[in-house]
Structures are given as C-alpha cells and as structure tokens.
Design brief:
single chain; alpha+beta; Alpha-Beta Plaits; 2 domains; eight-stranded mixed beta sheet; four-stranded antiparallel beta sheet
Length: about 425
C-alpha cells in the first residue's frame, strides 16, 4: 500500500518506453556484486533479494482486517554486504555503511544508537529493520552494504516492503540465524510504522516474504492465514502499467483513510470493518456521516469482491474475475476516492481496447493518487494492447507510461555468489 519516497533505493523514476522488460534476478545480482566491488574494493560475502508485489484485488482492506489477493512480482530489491573494513567499523565496531545505486547520499549509522530521524528517508527503512532484528537476537557485525532495485518507486508496487524484507533476509544470512517467516513480515511492518511513519497493513511484507512462483496469496489479514490460488494459465498475462505519476503516502492521505475506517467501525459498533456487512451498513446509513458511509461501503464490498475473485480464478471464470476488477476500481474511485485522472484513463483504455476479450479486467493497484494499474490480458493480444494503450495514454495525458508483464514470483531469498 505504500512505497519508498521518490528517488531512494533503486528503480527508475523517469518516463520510459512503453515496454519495460525485466532484468533477470541473476543478472541484477551480478550487477550489484560488481558495483559492491567497485565501491568497497572487495567482493560481497552475502547477497539477498526480495520482490515487490502487485495486488490483483483487495485494496485498502488489509488495515481493516480484511482480505487481499496479491502476488510477488519479478522485480526485486537486491542487497549485498560484507564485514566492514577497518575504515568502516566506527569506534564500537558496529557501524553500518549504506550505499544505494540510485542516490548519491551514502549513510552511516550505529544500529540502535543513532537518531534515525537524522537519516535520509530511504535509509530509515533499513535502520528500522536492523534495530528489529537486533532485538530478536540477530547480532550483526559492522557491515558495508550496497542496495540496488528494479521495483518501480512510487508506483504502488511495494518498493518499501521489498527493501525491508531484503534487509531482514540479508541479516539472516549474515548471522546464520533464521526468523519465523510470519515474524519476519511483522518485524518489517513494525519498522515501517515506527521508522517511516506509515501505518501500513501486513499485505506487502507478507507477500514479499511468502510469495510463491505461479501463485497468488489469498491472505486473511486478521488471522494471517494464507490460501494459495494458482495463476498458471499460460495464455493469461499480468500487465502492470505505471502512470508515472508519483505519490508519497506519508503525506497524510493514507493515515486519513485509515482513521475514517476506524471511525466508521466505531459508529457501527464493530471491532473493524471486516466485521460489518452491507446489511449492517444499511442499518446505520441514516446516522453515518456521508464520507464514512462511502469509506465503509468500499471496504465491505471489496472484501466480498476479493474472496469471490479468488474462487473465480480457481475455477477459471475469467469474465466474472474481470467484472470484479472493474467494480473494484469504480469503488476506489468513487467511494474511497484514492484514484486520479491518469489511473482512470488507463483503466478506461484497457476496457476500450480490450472489449473484444483481449483484456479480462483492469483496476488501479496500490495506495492510489498515482502509481499503477494491474490488468489481466490475453497473451496473444499483448503487443497490440501495449502499443494502443501507450499511444492513447500519451495523447490524452502527455505522459509516457511504463509497462511490463510479470508472472507470480518467488518470495525473498538468499542468493548465491555470482561468478565474476
């Protein structure tokens, strides 16, 4: 539901050509290791990767104890590290020197001892996870760390969660200790709350940790139970289109929506909107403030749409999956009011150019106010759709979109040393 602030740990923020092919993970690892050697004069001892995610349906439901249906994507944050050289140890032998391939503002800190507010915003995510890992007994040495990423920034594809999870996985490799996967996801979520100031739900970190190739995750955000939903039809592609309009959820809109949902739940006498139904909402329609009524209507309906979409995907009922995706976008636009003109244009173009069945469904994904759409498209129509949507979007908005396809990807992992 949120991303690392613009211009931070990696990815490319300028407009690109419409087709943005992925860099293979092993190629990215090789690139990171090479940059590490150039910067620090030696090879990294450990490498770890964590993917971004796209949410097929189930938006702004995670912090309402609801249901989401995300998948990990074939875009990654990769981190390389080795024990710090003598010049990088600091007085206590515990300093971390942190570099990003995307920014020219290296950071240095002592985990738990320095004021994180003095760090650049992108480095606070790493610092917060390192503090959490230390509290869990992962006692790391002084480190030199390099970060690179292919997860688009500000696009609603969870570059922040990928950075957090990659950090935790790297420290597991460094210390030789393993965290319980769910505990690792929660540790990363806590770091985002405390050190980045974003009161996010659990979806992003869970997906980056627990994603599986070829599978969507139907996640119950209250119980944290997961049911895998296969997305293996070779004729169906997941197309992600970046509006190249950037957003930062620390600006208050995310927290405001969460507060409104909590107020609506209190007014209806339920613990969270997960416990309300459309019948409940009708009972309180006359007393709820109009804006709270709209927010609640979105969340309640979105939970129903998400569980229904999972069932339809499992049965291959593509037409109904598409109807649910379009209904989700309309609700996010009208009731939750987190869409924007560029997102609406992309969904309308997908519906228009895919009216012959080329596009199964399309919707905005992520926190909103910019970012990406996600569409299910027929593979044999992909080239035509990419060209048509890109051309019309540029004509209507003056912006070049970024497009790429992805399959459901594997979650976080320690990487082998690339061959030099």
């Amino acid at each position: 539901m949120k991303d690392v602030p613009r211009g931070t740990c990696g990815g490319r923020s300028e407009a690109h050509s419409a087709n943005d092919p992925a860099i293979a993970l092993d190629e990215l690892a090789h690139r990171v290791a090479g940059e590490f050697r150039r910067r620090f004069g030696r090879s990294p001892q450990w490498l770890a990767a964590a993917p971004g995610r796209v949410n097929l349906i189930g938006e702004h439901t995670d912090y309402n104890d609801g249901f989401v249906l995300p998948m990990a994507i074939e875009r990654y944050v990769v981190m390389a590290a080795s024990p710090a050289g003598e010049d990088g140890m600091g007085g206590d032998g515990k300093s971390v020197r942190l570099h990003s391939s995307a920014v020219h503002e290296p950071e240095r800190f002592r985990v738990g001892d320095d004021d994180f507010r003095q760090l650049a915003p992108w480095a606070r995510y790493v610092y917060g996870v390192m503090v959490g890992c230390r509290e869990q007994g992962l006692d790391m040495p002084a480190l030199d760390v390099l970060i690179d990423s292919t997860v688009p920034l500000g696009g609603g594809l969870s570059s922040s969660a990928a950075l957090e999870v990659a950090t935790a996985t790297l420290l597991e490799a460094v210390t030789g200790q393993r965290l319980d996967p769910i505990a690792k996801a929660r540790l990363c979520q806590k770091a985002e709350h405390q050190y980045a100031g974003v009161p996010c739900g659990i979806m992003d970190q869970f997906t980056s940790v627990l994603g599986q190739a070829g599978q969507l995750l139907l996640l119950d955000c209250r119980s944290t139970q997961i049911r895998m939903v296969p997305l293996t039809d070779p004729e169906v592609e997941v197309l992600i289109v970046n509006t190249n309009v950037k957003h930062e959820l620390t600006g208050g809109e995310y927290a405001q929506r969460r507060s409104q949902c909590e107020a609506a739940a209190r007014a209806m006498g339920v613990a969270s909107l997960r416990d309300a139904t459309l019948d409940t909402l009708r009972q309180y329609a006359a007393t709820l403030e109009p804006v709270l009524h709209r927010r609640a209507r979105h969340v309640i309906g979105e939970n129903d749409r998400t569980t229904a979409a999972a069932e339809c995907l499992a049965r291959g009922q593509w037409a109904e999956v598409g109807r649910l995706m379009y209904a989700s976008h309309a609700s996010l636009r009208d009731d939750y009011e987190v869409s924007c003109e560029e997102l609406d244009v992309l969904v309308e173009l997908a519906q228009q150019h895919g009216s012959d069945g080329a596009v199964i469904g399309s919707r905005m994904t992520g926190g909103g106010f910019g970012g990406c759409t996600v569409s299910l498209v027929r593979k044999d129509h992909l080239d035509r759709l990419v060209a048509s949507i890109a051309s019309d979007y540029l004509r209507l908005t003056g912006i070049v979109p970024t497009m790429f396809t992805t399959r459901p990807a594997q979650g976080t992992q320690v990487l082998p040393q690339p061959v030099e």
